[in-house]
Amino acid sequence: MRVNSFYKYFTIACLILILTVAIPYFIKFNGGISNETAVWGAFGDYFGGILNPIFAIINIGILIYLTHLVHKIDSNRVKKELEIQKQIAIYGLKHDALKAFNNNLSKFQLELVKSNENSELNIILHRNDFYSLIETYTYLFPSIENDKKSALTEKMRELSKIAGDRFVGGNEFDIPNKLEPKLLEFIDLKIEFIKNIQNCILE
Description:
Layout lengths: L1 H27 L8 H76 L6 H19 L8 H19 L10 H28 L1
Helix pairs in contact: 1-2, 2-3, 2-5, 3-4, 4-5
Keywords: Membrane, Transmembrane, Transmembrane helix
């Protein structure tokens, strides 16, 4: 629609310009149509001498305008492509973070119910890994409240302490009574935390 309007007004402007140049000529020279070649030649020189420079200037102006328009369109296209690439990269980082958090919390949960000699060390390692993941990826999920992160880290610290007591005095602790209630609370927090990350990715 805008292009059609431009052509319409441009055509009208050209006609007005031609008439503005032609009418004074015919008024000055009585408006008659001559049969002599020399008169037509003089008219052509007059007409071309005035209009050619004007149209040349107009052409330069149109060329500058079109060059600017093409540059603007191209710049906008590049900006959109860069924005799309940025969003794809951020989505990939968020997806990687989701996998890392999910794997870490699942391994932590699994080690809690094991009773081999490496479990206590693995629990501490997985817990520390989770802290590192929080520090690394927290900027990707600004909408996840700090209290949710704090609640989960605090629960992991609490579970680590309970699990660390399993071999104190050489006796395994009572998993159903001591660990299970806290473990269920941890699982609920874990599910909520992972769900929040998924929601952030889908935003």
